[in-house]
Design a protein that fits this description.
The complex is a heterodimer of chains A (about 475) and B (about 270). Helices cover about 70% and strands about 0% of the residues of chain A. Chain A has about 475 residues and is mostly helical. Chain A has a three-stranded antiparallel beta sheet with strand order 1-3-2. Chain B is α/β, with parallel strands linked by helices and about 270 residues long. The chains are: A mainly alpha (about 475), B alpha/beta (about 270).
Amino acid sequence: MNRAGKQILFTLALLALPILAHAAKIGDISETSWTEQAIDFFSFQQPIIRTALIGTLLIGFCCGILGSFLVVRKLSLLGDTLSHAVLPGVAMGFLWNASKDPWAIFVGATAAGILGVALVGWIKQTTHLKEDSAMGMVLAGFYGVGICMTTVIQNLAMGNKSGLDKFFFGQAAALSSGDIRLLGIISLITVVVILLFYKEFLVISFDIGFAQALGMPVKILHYALMALLTFAVVVSLQAVGVVLVSALLITPAAAAFLLTDRMHWMLVLAAVFGMLSGAIGAFVSYLSNNLPTGPFIVLGATSIFLLALLFGPRHGLLPKILRRRKQRKRIALENTLKAVFHLNENSQFTKRAFEAGKLATERNASLHETEAEIRNLVKAGMALRLDTANGTKMSGKAQFELTKPGWYRACEIVRNHRLWELYLTNAAQYQTDHVHDDAEDTEHHLGEDIVLRIEARLKNPIHDPHGKLIPNRDAIKP
Amino acid sequence: MQSSSTTQTNSKSAAPLEVHDLTVAYTKRPVLYGIDLKVPKGSIVGVVGPNGAGKSTLIKAIMGLLPVSSGWIKVFGKPFKKAVTRIGYVPQRESVDWDFPVNALDVVLMGRYGRLGPFKRPSKADKEIAMSCLEKVKMTSYATRQISNLSGGQQQRVFLARALAQESDLYLMDEPFVGVDATTEAAIIEILRELQAQGKTLIVVHHDLTTAPEYFDRILLLNMRVVAYGKTADVFTFENLQNAYGGRLSILSEVALSRARKKFDGDTRDNVG
């Protein structure tokens, strides 16, 4: 275990610093270098590579699709429960004929998985414990029993027991052609069942009461999904391992959920992400001897999830930050315009051109900051600099004036502000001294239709609650 | 699964809904006792009663979503399972996860699934029907919106559109007016009236006593048992409400009563149809 852990760390370092790692690796673990292994992998010449890759692709495919249903039904913990509950069954299947016969293990593991899920249901129904507690107990209980059994088996003097430890962290290279056949069958069943009953699975996942009202056999559909899920978990164990198979169910589906708002696209994306993760895991674990596949598959899936989290166009963090920054910029621009309007108003609308220093005082900002603001206005076509030295540093005396679009926008913002203040005091019964701060924010977010409705509601008012004129776009012109 | 032509023969005579001596229990504690109910065709029945009176339980029992301890329920003279396609259902809005990755049109299309039967995908005609149902609830422009981006009232309208897409004869609606804005409430009630005019039968769970007499022409006052059932004018009396609500009859319900009285003492024909 410790050795495996070191190897994982080692390989991570190896990925980060290929050259260094290459030097450190000579004569350490393997005879061949990682580059040779990588070239070897991508040549797909060796049957063992082909088997491992096909296996992990199929596993990623099945787990991605079925895991999507877990994620949207808020049953993620069920995947975890299922994958841990199968371990005693794996041990039993192994004991059956003291070898890694895929079918014996498949039968044992499926039975244990179904028993575990049934037990969760039974605890939930007969006690007033909630589902999550039931799952937590079954997960740990079955896993404990499984570990005891596998430990005993490994201490027994039996012939071929080498394969058993692979069930903990998975080893794609340990997949036999029999395993692949089994995986192929399960994948085929999954695709056929989901395609045939997609609309049924969609309804029972979204609104089980409505599905029942439509006369759908919801119980049968639910158990069918659970059975497929159990099969998928069991056939994945070899390559991914008991501990991490639930991550392969959840993570690709979660990444897909962040990227799309439609269920069918979520299924497609989750399947693709699952396959990608599987391929990454198979590849990395091939780079060196004795590397487990499961952790790398999960690392692959987690990286995909992180990418979706950061860069997803709608829900991603980076686009969100960019959108927010764009909005902040717009608000800053509008605040500058508003300040220019105030300068204008203070001059009784007699002046058009103002000094940068005056604006700085009005904005309560440094000359440096104000200079940047004016430059932004000029860039947006909302102001003109009246001094000729366009590129050079502005002095406090440098003059500028608003262009027509700039002036209109300024009037609009002030109008929004004052209308909103008036609406809050007159229609929403705010005190007049409570409304300014709220209007400072709301003025930037009022759409044209809302403004029109407020105007109608207030019967086209002229003055705000503080007695100031509400700019009327037709009346006030530069 | 059942086509409408085969059901026509006995549906002409059979009431849309008949409930006889129905008792429903959650883990042996009865929630509904000996319910008797017969709903005539073309009526809008409001199911009214205090919290915990078993209003939603009754709807769920009719839909076959809950096991029945005793008694029977017949929909158009048949057990629920044989009349599935003739029943439309609007569940409570909170009963689903609105973050689910579907858009408004997807949800409305689900209303067609009962008619499609297994293995079949919704056809172009189904999509057109779904779109026209969205249009009826004035939600056409939101068809491709993910459902979490809709307001509470809009979500409720999508649920209503889904039930419309079922093209049923009996509609069961569980609190369709909860948490909706005034516009939506008006839009919903307009659709209910339209359905009634088409000869459909509606059973609506409702919690607002003040609007109940205005919306429904029959009222079922429920408190674990049938307190009173019949024409609104007959049922909506102080004694009945007192019976249903026990000591909890508040000023609010008294106001409701006085409003109802005003309505019934005046010209009732105004409000029907």
